[in-house]
Amino acid sequence: MGVEPAGPETLLRAEGLRQVYDGRVVVEVEAIEVRAGEVLALLGPNGAGKSTLMRLLAGLEKPERGRLYYKGRAVEPGDRELRAAAVAVLQRPYLWRGTVRYNVEYGLRVRGIPAAERRSRAGAALDTLGARELEDVPVNALSGGEAQRVALARALAPRPEILFLDEPTADLDVTVRRLLLADLERIVSDAAPAIVLITHDAAEAFALADRVAVFEEGRIVQTGTPAEIFESPATEFVASFTGAEFLLSGEIAETGDGTVMVRLDTGQRVEVQGSGDAGLRVKVAYRPEDVVVVPAESSSQQTSARNRYPARVAHLNPSGGLVRLRLEADGLQLEAMITRHALEELRLEVGSRVVAQIKATALHTFPI
Amino acid sequence: MDLLFDALSEAVRLLVSGDPYLWGIVGRSLLVSSSAVLLGLIFGVPLGAWLGLARFRGRGLAIAIVNTGLALPPVVVGLFVYMMLSRQGALGSLGWLFTIPAMISAQFILAAPYVAAITLAAVQSVPPELRLQARAVGASRLQAVWLHLREARLSLMAAVAAGFGAVISEVGAVTMVGGNIADQTRVITTAIVLETRRGRFAAAMALGLILLAFAFAANVFITRIQQAEPRRRRPPAGRPPRPPRPPLTS
Fold this sequence. Notes:
The structure holds two protein chains of two kinds.
Chain A: E1 10-21, E2 24-35, E3 39-43, H1 50-57, E4 65-70, E5 73-75, H2 80-85, E6 86-89, H3 100-109, H4 115-128, H5 144-156, E7 162-166, H6 174-190, E8 194-199, H7 202-208, E9 211-216, E10 219-224, H8 226-231, H9 236-241, E11 245-255, E12 259-264, E13 269-273, E14 281-286, E15 292-295, E16 307-319, E17 322-329, E18 332-339, H10 340-346, E19 353-358, E20 364-367
Parallel strand pairs in A: 3-8, 3-9, 6-7, 7-8
Antiparallel strand pairs in A: 1-2, 1-4, 4-5, 9-10, 11-12, 11-14, 12-13, 14-20, 15-19, 16-17, 16-19, 17-18
Helix pairs in contact in A: 3-4, 3-5, 4-5
Chain B: H1 2-17, H2 20-53, H3 59-69, H4 74-85, H5 100-124, H6 129-136, H7 141-151, H8 153-168, H9 172-178, H10 188-198, H11 201-228
Helix pairs in contact in B: 1-11, 2-5, 2-8, 3-5, 4-5, 4-9, 5-8, 5-9, 6-7, 8-11, 10-11
């Protein structure tokens, strides 16, 4: 998390940002930057300070300390140029009284755009969101999904360089959420503003973002591409927040060439890619989708997985097209995710004997 | 009962016949009270908006003072204005005592707190997130405040009606500073008192009916405004609650 020199494509950069509410530090970020055309996701649980950081970056709030740079120039909250370039959609976007058109034109009106151009740009923004037919509808008559799309159109109409979206799908049901995510993907590819997406949903962040900054208690604990975050979580928090399960704790028994052998407290040994000193207490993390389940009778087949554990299916939990299995292997509990189709093909049921296999490269250790 | 019925039927006849004495008084009342409310708006809306939006030390005390203004006794206001405008008073040189401007001044003092208090409540009923969202779309602070007032505009219209209702029916202040001079400063309320004392109940009743009609119209206006919002669907972002409505008193 060192402070790097700002690159030429950096639109917005914050250094040493700190915000305090009622004596409690809610944001403390050493450095963060938003680059032209990228989608940066601020990922973290509710209450981690993501929205506060968004307001600070958008120049809507004065930090207790820290500096904000827009295109290399130090700016204060409310800076005229930053205000013109950055638009934010709040978590519960407030639509003001009047028609959808009045709302969508608002950002253009405050920028002094003439009426004719306002009208055409507002129409184009509504077209992008597939909401042109709502133009003359009073906002009071909109559904939740429509209101969210109108709020997005209002944000897009001024063609911002940086678009902040605070939990844009938080209050929406599954169907509307899927439609809005499709809209967002289109905006990302068509309009090409830099987007800062605030979300608590790792899947949403990984699907849309070029870079992800994981947030924990006001601090950024890891920044990287979705693949980097997913495959090499820097901390136990990042791993668990992005969907990893934890094996029991253990101790590094041996170190090898790019791998360590961990002896779990339950007695099993597990080989993990990585490094560490022998004797170090660690937790081992994996993702359920990386656990390969094979029936016990066919487990002798050749496999590159070094970690193989005979187990019994203790529980089946169907979820959509996938099934989550809880496996028990001599005190060791493992979670595995397989498709419904695979479940039927393998004829698995509670009590079935299986072998669970996990590659060393799919495991991560975190010091306790 | 006969007296009441006879007075009522005579009152209706006077009104329908377009009695110039009666309608002259009605016109004067409208002039005085409307002017007072207009001045009350010019002074009360910015004051109420400022108290609703700004955060400063002593704000609570300022709001309490404005709310106390809702209970100002008209005769006390009349006394204060009388003393200011009397020959020895600070504004005695204006020569306004027992003139229309004096009556407007007194009613302005009565109307302004109503306008300010309702404006304050209306402004506070709009969620502060509105201004944050406006600024997030590119508005300056001033533009965001203007949008905030626009959101509260229906309730601000109620302030006009409440202020008008408060002053059109008061009698104490206008009697003291206007003097109830025929064809000059006589208004509906002072005329009702006079005509009743003279035993001309029909004229008093006719003026009373007009006064009731004004009060009724003001209340209908306020009620329509207050009922207009709940009939609409709440958007997901949430609409502001209605501001509390102060009572219409004289």
